């Protein structure tokens, strides 16, 4: 199986500013020429805009409109159409240049002017990566962070390796990609230097590490809780539980002895006095039952009163809403906005056309209904008034019942207090000391039962902590084993790494890299060293050249071996860091030689799209468009 093939066939922009640019297999050049003899004018004609359009069509997301490259001219743009060929299948991606978060439309076939009328697969921007990776035959893999989170290698992440943007590519290889290890992950994955089996282990390790972190956090919290309560082990928890059980049993035996003494003292007194106490006890229990029933009824009445008050408030609110709704419906249905009510600027026809795409023509937000749409049913205020009156009548009845029940409850509480006082007087003569002792003992039993419950809970926590510790040890062993396996799986394919180094060296020699003697590729970082020093230390003027050659080496490796690199390279004006004219020409001449060699062999199985402000005669046959800072010759131009 060969490396996947991704070809940019056509870039079309519709709107007041438009573009229709075709590309072929092999080398394609977009040349920026100076305007008025000023070489700096080539910086403002649209070289980077082309790269931005390709990235945007392939699913690059933007945090906000303010960070969108085309934000200053968004009102002059409408739609981007990106025609691509993926492993021999042609498909066209449609994406709005105004609603940058709206879904993407994907259609099979080449772009044509009536394509918008054809049915399309609607894809959320975040899911476009999966669609294209699946079409390219590139597996959806993830890499693990230090914290154990999985970060997917999406197409927008991977395409940093084959779409070189002026701002974030030539300062370093995959410049600004954080952390630095992610650069190695991407290069290793796309080139096949890192075995693909590593990613399955990485996902398994991430899951295990996350579980270990959660379990370890739980273990530490339970351990701290037990230490705060004086329990450091299961043995201490067992001892505390046995002591609590023994103390409670002893207190219950004392309680039984007190109860026996009270019964004996009760039999020693007259039958008439005992009958009097029994009668008072019976009467006291009866009044307690009546008090409980009265309180239950009172709670129910109060709840009913609260419900009715809520109902009245709700109905009154509904009446106010109904009045406002009737008034706003009659007012808003008669308003036709000719100017914006806030900025007082005229509402244009273009703004009104937004509503054809279900967006408000004033605020440009998605809409499902309008404030001037007539409600399907408006409640009548007369009906609401009748309901309010009925609810208030019922509420007054409930309030009267509450007042009656409160009077009854007050009377019962007074009776209860009187009988309780009388019973205390009768009992004081012969059971008061024993009763005080019994009450004291009951309090001790309650306290000991609470201590026993706490001891049981701590004992259960101690046992659970031991179980968690055992489970945590098993997971940590699994994590250590997976870490060892991952380190082994991350070992680079030495044969592939050596082949990549050889290709890189041949390119550096072909472009006559100044002072070149030798190069190597670090097996851990996959970053190149030139003449024994890291490539970024070759000087500002040569750093971009070293980076460009590195990505050209990735492309050539993909053409020779089976990789996940899609045999596409977009280079956004590599003349950075004041690259001298001679080395720049040699780089351009090398790109032209690639095309010539491929044409001679009869098989061009790659694509390079180059934007440049410097041209050589060898590139002339491959120039697809010439641009400048003149308004009628910029990349995005107004219709004639």
Any overview of this molecule?
Helices cover 52% and strands 13% of the residues. With 640 residues, the chain is an alpha+beta fold. The two termini are 48 Å apart. The chain has a domain at 6-194 and 492-638: Rossmann fold. The protein has a seven-stranded antiparallel β-sheet with strand order 7-6-5-4-1-2-17, covered by helices on one side. The protein has a five-stranded parallel β-sheet with strand order 10-14-15-3-16, sandwiched between helices. It has a three-stranded antiparallel β-sheet with strand order 11-12-13, with helices on one face. The protein has helices spanning 47-57, 125-136, 155-158, 180-191, 198-228, 234-267, 271-332, 349-352, 381-428, 432-489, 494-510, 540-560, 581-601; strands at residues 6-15, 17-22, 26-32, 77-86, 89-96, 104-108, 121-123, 142-144, 150-152, 163-164, 519-521, 528-530, 533-534, 568-572, 607-612, 623-627, 637-638.
